[in-house]
Amino acid sequence: MTNLFETALDHHRQGHLHEAERLYREILVDNPDHPYANNNYAILLRAQRRREEAVACYNRAVRANPEDPHVLNNLTCVLSDMGRDAQAAKVAMMAVALKPDYAEAWFNLGNILRNLGGADQARQAYRRAVRIRPDMAEAWSNLGDMYKSASELTQALDCYRTALKLQPGLPQPYVNLGEVLKEQGRVTDAVTLLQHALEQHPALSLLHSNLLFALHYTPHVPPEVIFRAHKHWGERHAAPLAPNPPFAFTNDRSPGRRLRVGYVSPDFCGHAVSSFLEPLLRGHDRSQVEIFCYPISRRSDAVTDRFKSITGHWFPLTDLTDEEAVERIRADGIDILVDVAGHTCDCRPLIFARRAAPVQVSWLGYPDGTGMAAMDYRLTDEVADPSGLTDRWHLEKLVRLEDGFLCFRPPRDSAPCPDLPARRNGFVTFGSFNNNSKITPEVVALWSALLDRVPKSRLMLKSRSFADPATLARYRGLFRERQIADARVDMLPQTPDQGDHLRAYDRLDIALDPFPYNGTTTSCEALWMGVPVVTQLGSHHVARVTGSILHRLGLDELVGADGDAYLDIAAGLAGDLDRLEELRRGLRARMQASPLCDSYRFAGQVEAAFRQMWRDWV
User: Fold this and answer.
1) Average pLDDT for residues 566-591, to the nearest whole number?
2) Which sequence spans correspond to the domains of the chain?
3) How far is residue 381 CA from its own chain's centroid?
4) Which of the four pLDDT bands, split at 50, 70 and 90, describes residue 498?
5) Are 259-407 and 421-597 the same fold in CATH?
6) Which uninterrupted H or E stretch holds 362?
7) 3-state SS, residue 360
8) Cβ neighbours of residue 151 closer than 8 Å, sequence gap 6 or more
9) Each residue of 103-127: pLDDT tens digit?
10) What is the overall mean pLDDT for the chain?
11) Which strands form 489-492's sheet, in the order they lie side by side?
12) Element (H, E) at 400
């Protein structure tokens, strides 16, 4: 038996997996409790995603040799694959108790604790792993993730750079290092890094997607160049996956029947996107649309429970490959599949590249086209994407909804303060609660000019990344270069509680929209809390969203055509406190009466668009 196991192991090491599997099974017929045959056969089963069988083998190996930390560590991995992280954590703790210097087990424990939401414990586990094995690049990378999630960006940068120094071919630190640079407001550095990383990992679509997303934050890349970058992404990653010959869908081709519409999103949770996705799902006419939700991330909270309660079908794709996800969606007979992620975090665009449904639509989560010929349509409106201007920057056909491409679910229990802060302060407070990635040096220059123009005025910024001392110091320096005293600019970190976050608008008189990347949720929240938002209209969608929102409220007077007009509007408002007071007291009612908060009206327009798409396909 020993010789047979050694032969099986030799085949395993040489990559002759079918022969190794055959021999392991032969051993287990005669000796079902053979610990090493069970362990090694389970490794093969896990690779084939035959996870229940793998767990059974690992359990037999553990019973035969309960003090083998390596088998326990392997068991933790497959349990975590199955989403059984609480059980996996217990097994991982047994492994490290048996072998405290087992770096790989500490690393796996960190991954499991991270999945369970134990950020501090996960960080400690990763630290333990790198103390034992200072050359463990993956542990340094994941430790960087924990610092990043806590907005300790300088420490995160150090971890990612250490990981890359140890293992230059590891792609994930590049992805996250680019994100950290962007969060620090160093967008040009982020773009440069991601371009360099893509040269080393040209087949990594996620890395390429991160680069596309980052391009929208800088004013130095024109929209036609951004479009070419998206088209290149589609040609490199998506086009080779298109079914050839095209898949023959068997959907009932009746043009007027009830449509099966699927939404693919990582953000069925407490995320900015959910404030706009939920109103559509709630507003859908169930006699016209049967809703299918396909989550593509494991994030789950009370908002997730709301989504589950309003949809008829809930099928997570998190444990499926792209090919399996396509099979699942086709089996559901989806007529229209909507991508709500684009090239953002946790996106799965290659599901759409494989043509999962007869009609495929991009909407909401990403401020641009996808670059895929397989994406048929994109929902937008005439202000965000004027006819004849932005069509040439899309492979999708732009469908412009009459009353705007957004519908907002306002936060609850958050009455605006009717009193104007400027009346009690004796000065006007401008502000922006957008993430600081959008606050480029060009934005700082314009806002500094506004502070110069309005005596005694102050600026209040609030962003998660201001918890990082280096980021805070960098932005202090940008304003000092413009001769703006520190006392005139308050920079606050993120407020964890939403109620406290909304109450911070009580301190603002006028909200300032960044450019070229406008606010969306932040613009809607400011308006809901009675704070008018001043914006300037750029050339493409990402720079026109707030203009679209204000148009729905009949407030085009707050939209400037350029920087000079932006300054004139903001300074003019600051000099007219009566007008500011009037706006503050009427903005919420104006929003409530507008299409921006009418979910049934919005859903009706989306359904009409879907119906026309379906008829065109039929």
Assistant:
1) 97
2) 171-245, 259-407, 421-597
3) 23
4) confident
5) yes
6) strand 359-362
7) strand
8) 183, 464, 465, 467, 468, 493, 494
9) 999 999 999 999 999 999 999 999 9
10) 96
11) 489-492, 458-462, 429-432, 510-512, 533-536, 559-560
12) strand 397-400
pLDDT value, residue 2: 61
Give the tens place of pLDDT for each residue, 36-76.
999 999 999 999 999 999 999 999 999 999 999 999 999 99
Of 64, 65, 257, 61, the residue nearest 75 (C-alpha): 61
Token reading at 49 = 């995603």
Q: Dig out the tokens for 478 from the structure.
A: 């940008």
Query: In this predicted model, what pLDDT tens digit does every residue of 554-567 receive, in sequence order?
Result: 999 999 999 999 99
DSSP β-bridge partners for residue 491? 461
Specify the fold of 421-597.
Rossmann fold (3.40.50)
The DSSP letter of residue 507 is G
| 535 contacts 558 by C-beta, under 8 angstroms | yes
* Record: fold of 171-245: 1.25.40
Q: Do residues 437 and 443 lie in contact, with contact meaning Cβ atoms separated by under 8 Å?
A: no
- Check residue 414 and report its DSSP letter: -
Instruction: Look up the pTM and report it.
Output: 0.94
Q: How far is CA 53 from the centre of its chain?
A: 34
Is 259-407 CATH 3.40.50.300?
A: no
DSSP state for residue 416 in the 8-state scheme: P
Q: What is the pLDDT of residues 190-215, one digit of tens each?
A: 999 999 999 999 999 999 999 999 99
Cα 390 to the chain's mean position, in Å? 24
